[in-house]
Amino acid sequence: TIGVLVIVWLEREISAGIQQRIGPEYAGPLGILQALADGTKLLFKENLLPSRGDARLFSIGPSIAVISILLSYSVIPFGYRLVLADLTIGVFLWIAISSIAPIGLLMSGYGSNNKYSFLG
């Protein structure tokens, strides 16, 4: 959750700079309190599950999408000596792992038992 707070804070600061407006810097030093308030709100949100759908598919789908995206970063070299997996088929493995993410999104759409969320 700390990573989410930092990413949200950076996104707000960068978008404020692009749009030439003031960012969330007035809620505490450097806008840290705004990020903490957003994180607290995120933790206490209600977990909504579809009443007529499959709750298991609806819950597992986003996890499959995120895990496949995070696994795809294991074959990307971030520096000369910063390589997690030195593979000769790295590009093909990256494409194969990245192609699993839409399956997770389709699972969530199917699990909600709603034709519009299944379409995307």
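the 2nd protein, sequnce then structure:
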Amino acid sequence: MAMHTPPWEMLPDDILRLVFSRVECRADRKVMAGVCGAWRRAVKVKGARGQPPRPRQLPCLLRPNGGDSSVCCLLCSGGDGISVVHAAHLPQQPVDARHARFFGSHDGSWAFLASAQTSGHVLHKFGTDTIIPLPDFMDVQGGESYAIVHLAATISHQPGHASCLVAAIVKTYPIDATSLRAVAFWRMGHGTMASELHRAEIEAMEPEDVMFHKGDLLVLTEQGNLLVWIPEYTDEGRGVEMHGPEHRACGKPRVYNELAVRSQYLVESQNYLLLIVRYREREGHPTSYAQELKVFQMVELDMPDENGILVRRYNWVEMSSLFGEMIFVGRGCSRSYKVANYPGFAEGLYFLDDGSFYHPDLLSRDAADRKYTCSDNGRWVNHRIDRCFPPEQGCSWSPPVWVLP
């Protein structure tokens, strides 16, 4: 006589929770919880003994493409294969994220996006209706104001913190391809107008990346120089005064092994400030894909000047190892994770296709003539490029973006 197999919904709760705790991918956890009501109740009981621990998350690569958007999960690959692609159901309310342009992210599944390509800038928390409008205008010295387009952004604290600052790399609108990029800042809850960092200090040194580090605002320029502003919070006006800049580093050579600098990023790793440089073939080569990546650490030295007085000097020094770290690079949202916490993974640098940052004229084109590429994604591991994300044709709405856990 054949043995009767009990239905899946009859599995004991403790076994279900044990299985659930082994599922690391957030998308797979949602699928498991949706099998039936019994499974959903078993894995979502709050405070129960044996409650599944929160999965060890890594950033996912979101590839926006209207209704066909997808997300690439590295955890599902086990660390040594091609990432697994899941469907991404982007919300249509309170903003239509399916047809928005993404320009950054923050911890806790926050995303920066422009609902109308060149306007409607907001900070949105995935999975909720929470949106925080960001300034579409910037005031400059002399009392004038200009419409701005955000190209990259970062924040100093979690939204809702009393001292949360937004810093963004912007272009004035209408976009002039020959004009310089600027840096705007704004304290949340203090007016609707952003302010420009003193342009004279970054003239001819276009900003490449922005980040907050130990409370200070750091701006990396195209030449590899680092400029630092120190915020002073007030209860009046725009709520903050920015003091600076202080120059803390000299630039790096623009060419390495016949390769030219493609892009540069700042990241904090093990309390150290790092510079990540992506190199590509020089101008005239048929491909502009990343060919090599290098890592530099900010080093501080006290050296005597011409009068014998000790002066603090800063410089970028190349690193030979990542010392057990995985680093995900993106403007305003680079993050570092310890390899030891992710069995099967190896130290390396993960990057995405953000070449549209250098072509802001794309934003003003009609959707039919606008194409954001999504093919130069991957990782630098064992001194080579590994295309660990499945190829994607790109779309008319947005470049790819990291979703940070």
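Residues 13-53 form one domain. The chain has a mean pLDDT of 87.
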